[in-house]
Amino acid sequence: MHVAHLAASRRSSFRGPRAGLAPPPGGPFCDAVTPSPRRQRLLLVAQLALFAVALVALRRELALVHPAQLRHAFAEYGWGHLGVALACTAGSFLVLGAIEILGLRYADTSAARRVPARTAVVTSFVAHAISQSTGWSLLTGAALRLRAYATYGVGAASVAVTSAFVSATVWLGLLAAGAAALLASGEPVRVGAYELAARPIGAALAVVVAAYIAWAVLGRRPAIGLGRWAVRRPSGATAGGQVALSVLDWLLTGSVLYAFLPPALALRYAPFLRVYLVALTLAVISHVPGGVGVFEAALLGLLRGATGGRAASLAAAVAASLVMYRVVYYLLPLAAALLASAAGVGRAPAAAGAAPGGR
Known about the structure:
It is built from 14 helices and four strands. By secondary structure, the chain is an all-alpha fold. The chain has one domain (54-343). The protein is globular, with a radius of gyration of 21 Å.
């Protein structure tokens, strides 16, 4: 999943100005998500360093894996494994499409009515499939959305709001799913020789999600923050929809990898989900494009702790499952998204659908 998140706005990124009003370049939101050249260089150095550390850790985890073992592991997969993984991948992107529609409604109700649901779903697919593999999803997704929605009269500010809403929703779901997975089991999360208490961390994550929903349902002020940084309070239904849809997306995404794990690992879905979400969070925080290397190294280390060492003896099969996961959830959608983007699938003709005042 995941992971992984703008056009400039004259107002706050969450205020939802009227569609069709193209705000001038710049603004606090754009400044916040567009690093300065010096910061970009520092981020690149940090990403490369994290990537190098992840590769070293990954090499250590797979030191005893022989290519012949990998080939044997790949041969074990049947159409059933692939079918389940593809179905979960399709379901995940459809759920993300529903989040996109919810985001458009939050940003600008009139814009949501002008943009066909099919266009929103396809745009969401292209934005997520490309940005999750390239990094900086907030900027990449916004640029793709602006291109797709401009002919429907949706201005840059509304696109900024939609992109921020989608990214926030993805994080809400990650927190909620992580809270549930950590609270469901009292066993600590083992990372090498270290142990992290699961339930206190899960409770802290649950408090964050509960506070957001409580603000949406019980809050009296229409927004929080000041001036350009004011964040408009969503309705209770919108907040509930955000959490429910995003949790479903994370469950489907995790199921793609779970479908390829070797049965001999004997790992139930709930403990697996906990390991998966922790590894994915570390990958997202690293800002390495696609979390490549970081996710794999973290997952292998966490699986070894969760399975009492069985993951180490099944390293080749686990490595094969990670490769299949990358192919099915990342590479196949990326290829389809690039083809759809090049063909203009989901976009209206230049003269069609543009509302008065549209760009």
